[in-house]
Amino acid sequence: MAKKAAPKEMQRLDKIVAHITGWSRQQATKVIRDGGVVVGEEVILNGAAKVSISAPLVIAGFNDDLGDDDDALWLEDGAESDAVALGVSAQEALSAQVFLLNKPANYVCADRDKNHNVVTTLFRSERNCTNLHCAGRLDIDTTGLLVVTDDGALIHNITAPRKEVNKVYLARLDRALPKHAVRRFADGIKHPEEDKRYQGAKLTPLTPLFHELEDGESPQGHWAAVQLSQGRFHQVKRMFEMVGCEVQELTRVAIGALNVTSAQVGTSIGAYYRLTPEEVELLFTNKDYELSELEAMWRCYQEAVATAELCYLPPKLSAARSGSSELDAALDDEDAALEAAQGDFDEVDAEGNFRIY
Ligand code: URA
């Protein structure tokens, strides 16, 4: 995996401020000149001054948090020491931010969307994250593991088809899998909306596991796990469609060797945490999961759903439980609109920017 170059220890203040805040260099220079930036305990007025990237920075209007009056930062007794405590080190801001989110339903993986919540709004309280993007896309009604980061190279490495990062999905289906499904998934399914056959995928029916559950524990529907490394638009749903099954609930439970049973957010839909470098490596460690491991992930997901806030439940799950098909129709319309707007959900350019159609 490509690594970012280590940042230099001493950097121009205006550059650092612009990077941390996402402001233009001009805007940053003006705030610095107006006395709005404290480095360590010192107000520095010259944007060209070189400062240590490990010094805490407090920037008026960005992370001063001392109310609407910018002057309060500098003029009130004791305010400066409070401000220093709020400081963001440039080193922290300059290094890549890598989060693992357990994506809730009803959020879209896009930079902007007029009609839906976008995933990155869940990170609003993160102080120094101004450029976060999703590494790949999950449908609006799909839940589960999603990397959200400002590291374009990492996004590329996770989503580029030739990197073949392995992902595992659990799907609840409307009917039992036909006998030929496992072989058809392995051979590579052709969907009429796609030019090429999908790459082979490993399909594991999970429903037999429910015979081992206590009476009354048996969930509705038929469950299966899919392990694949491609990420085409609606791929899992479309593969099941071609064997005559409808996906009623879909969740991603593993990326590489990192899965819901090992990740901190596994049992908490809507939660995220910062990945360690070792965990980032796990994303690229391909793993062929056995039935017992898939069952453990299914149990972990069930626990997450049982404890999730209502708004985080996949809408199709709620609809299926209440027997309503209206919501399904609404979601199909939304999916069609998203497909038209986005193209394939794995299409990201070399810089990690999503291609807009
Ligand atoms: N496949 C799908 O059909 N939907 C997703 O969200 C991810 C994979």
Strand coverage percent: 15-25%
Largest sheet: 9 strands, mixed
Kindly report the CATH topology of the largest domain. Pseudouridine synthase
Separation, N- and C-terminal Cα atoms:
28 Å
Principal-axis shape equals elongated
Gyration radius, to the nearest Å? 23 Å
Count of DSSP E strands? 17
Unreliable stretches covering 5 or more consecutive residues? 66-85, 338-357
CATH class of the largest domain: Alpha Beta
Q: What is the total number of structural domains?
A: 2
CATH 4th-level superfamily of the largest domain: Pseudouridine synthase
CATH architecture of the largest domain: 2-Layer Sandwich
Helix content: 25-40%
Describe, in short, the structure shown:
With 357 residues, the chain is an alpha+beta fold. The protein folds into two domains: 85 residues, Roll (Structural Genomics Hypothetical 15.5 Kd Protein In mrcA-pckA Intergenic Region, Chain A); 225 residues, Pseudouridine synthase (2-Layer Sandwich), CATH 3.30.2350.10.
Q: How does this structure look, described?
A:
This protein is of the alpha+beta class and 357 residues long. It folds into two domains: 10-94, Roll (Structural Genomics Hypothetical 15.5 Kd Protein In mrcA-pckA Intergenic Region, Chain A), CATH 3.10.290; 98-322, Pseudouridine synthase. It is 30% helix and 19% strand. It has twelve helices and 17 strands. It has helices at 13-21, 25-33, 72-75, 79-85, 90-94, 152-159, 181-187, 235-242, 277-283, 291-307, 315-322, 326-342; strands spanning 10-12, 37-39, 42-43, 50-52, 56-59, 88-89, 98-103, 107-108, 117-118, 133-134, 143-149, 167-173, 202-205, 222-228, 247-255, 258-259, 272-274. Helix 1 packs across helix 2 (25-33). It starts with 9 loop residues before the first strand and ends in a 15-residue tail after the last helix. It binds uracil.
